[in-house]
Design goal:
Layout (H helix, E strand, L loop, with lengths): L2 E3 L1 H13 L15 E8 L8 E9 L2 E5 L9 E4 L4 E4 L1 E6 L4 E2 L2 E2 L6 H13 L2 E6 L5 H5 L2 H6 L7 E4 L26 H12 L6 E4 L13 H13 L4 E4 L3 H9 L4 E2 L10 H9 L3 E2 L3 H6 L13 H4 L6 H5 L2 H9 L3 H21 L19 H13 L3 H15 L17 E4 L13 E6 L2 E4 L5
Parallel strand pairs: 1-5, 2-5, 2-6, 7-10, 10-11, 12-13, 13-14, 14-15
Antiparallel strand pairs: 2-3, 3-4, 6-16, 8-9, 16-17, 17-18
């Protein structure tokens, strides 16, 4: 006979069972009894209308069945009436390890710091991240990346683009712990450096094609990034490009780039370029939150004093961004108006590409600097995508199914379907009606186990 318990009693029993398994709560759930979540509102990540009052059965860390009539005599039943289940969030563009306090430095890149930040992402329901080109040897030499993907450590699973490619004396800036980035001056150097990178088995290759609004005298030259793309493809690696200008997008698409890692912010993308991106199946990661962070603290955003935001910050960052001097410096900066215009252009380009059928995947650039908060940024990104014109359900699909596709993990993650890994967020509200309800976290499950009650627990 199925034994039904109240929500609180069931969760206490589950917590006790998890604690009795040892300190590592992320072990595979091979000996875990079945869990039946009932009376749930299900958003499966595929974009359809939420399913009301259904059941979700979890066995051995995976979704065994979904439906109003499913049952299991051995299951622990949890009544989630009034709550919503959606897939865990996935960020296809983040950074990890170099951030600590109010700065990003090479010496911050320790296993302790990486693990703490993976746990932070997890507490916000972000269970997969792509570290986009700023990793360091420790990640590979320690086996940390592989242990994370195997589920041997807690926190978000970390994917890596290894060491990215930039320009000599150009982007990305060395003062942001970018000293491990390759900076080839010749095509011959590209070949040797790509061979070296390929030995680490990165998930993709990151390139910086930008002058940071004229900060650097020269960008990566076309013959160099064309050679990088060709060399990466010879190793069966995709290339993701940091860019800003429409002209660079057009050239990179012509040269075979696979992923655009930021919005085009200089101009609206023309129909011809959009058609070429769609034909070549180029993936687009808008990182709208990055563009808003460039100016928004000067306007005291409505969330700046919200604990859901503040809990995502490193020590000292809130005091920095909330100071009158910091806010005034932003408003008085020569590029303040330009940054606002760039953000509006980015939103328009996202909507144009989405309507045209280009695959949009969520990424935020969180963790690259102290003001790009890890965990909160992903929820802000959802909000900004809806402000750009996507529906809440469309934004959720971008942040789950599409992001999983961008990371090539869609066979196991990204949607809630039988056979897939049970990674999901339980929410107190319905994000299909108000996207900000993704911040009303009741519980987070990874591999079929509750791993967090959210950042405010």
């Amino acid at each position: 006979m199925i034994k039904s318990y109240s929500i609180h009693l069931s969760l206490l029993l589950l917590t006790a069972a998890l604690c009795s398994c040892g300190t590592n709560r992320d072990q595979s759930a091979t000996n875990q009894s079945s869990i039946l979540l009932e009376h749930v509102r299900l958003i499966d990540g595929n974009g359809g209308t939420p399913v009301e009052n259904t059941r979700l059965l979890i066995k051995e860390g995976k979704i065994a069945a979904i439906g109003a009539d499913i049952t299991d005599e051995d299951a622990t039943v949890i009544n989630l009436e009034g709550k919503t289940i959606m897939p865990a969030l996935i960020s296809a563009h983040s950074h990890i390890g170099t951030l600590k306090g109010t700065g990003t430095k090479p010496e911050n890149y320790t296993e302790e710091n990486i693990l703490a930040q993976l746990k932070r992402y997890e507490s916000y329901g972000v269970l997969q991240i792509m570290a986009m080109g700023t990793d360091r040897p420790l990640l590979f030499e320690s086996g940390l990346r592989d242990r994370s993907l195997k589920g041997e450590i807690s926190g978000a699973r970390i994917h890596s683009a290894g060491y990215g490619f930039g320009a000599p004396n150009g982007a990305p800036p060395l003062d942001f712990a970018m000293d491990k980035v390759f900076r080839p001056a010749t095509v011959t150097q590209v070949t040797l450096q790509m061979d070296s990178l390929a030995q680490l088995k990165p998930d993709m290759v990151k390139i910086w094609v930008d002058d940071f609004n004229g900060k650097y005298p020269a960008k990566m030259q076309p013959e160099i990034y064309q050679a990088i793309i060709q060399a990466a493809h010879q190793h069966n690696l995709r290339v993701a490009a940091h860019l800003y200008y429409l002209s660079d997008l057009q050239q990179l698409v012509a040269n075979g780039v696979d992923i655009i890692a930021h919005s085009v912010r200089s101009d609206l993308i023309d129909d011809t370029t959009i058609a070429r991106m769609k034909a070549k199946q180029v993936i687009y990661i808008p990182t709208l939150s990055l563009d808003e962070y460039a100016y928004i603290y000067g306007q005291k955003p409505e969330w700046i004093n919200n604990d859901f935001f503040r809990k995502s910050l490193e020590p000292g960052v809130y005091e920095m961004i909330a100071s009158e001097q910091y806010q005034n410096d932003l408003k008085n900066a020569p590029n303040y108006a330009l940054n606002i215009k760039a953000f509006e252009t980015a939103k328009q380009n996202l909507l144009r590409l989405f309507k045209a059928g280009v695959l949009i995947a969520m990424g935020t650039d969180s963790g690259a600097t102290p003001i790009r908060a890890q965990g909160f940024s992903e929820h802000l990104e959802l909000q900004l995508m809806t402000e750009a014109g996507l529906t809440p359900l469309e934004a959720i699909t971008v942040a789950t199914k599409n992001a999983a596709t961008a990371l090539k993990v869609q066979q196991q993650y990204g949607t809630l379907e039988p056979g897939k890994v049970a990674d999901f967020i339980i929410l107190n509200g319905d994000p299909s009606k108000n996207i900000k309800n993704t911040r009303e976290i009741f519980s987070i499950y990874k591999n079929g186990k509750e791993v967090s009650k959210g950042p405010l627990s």
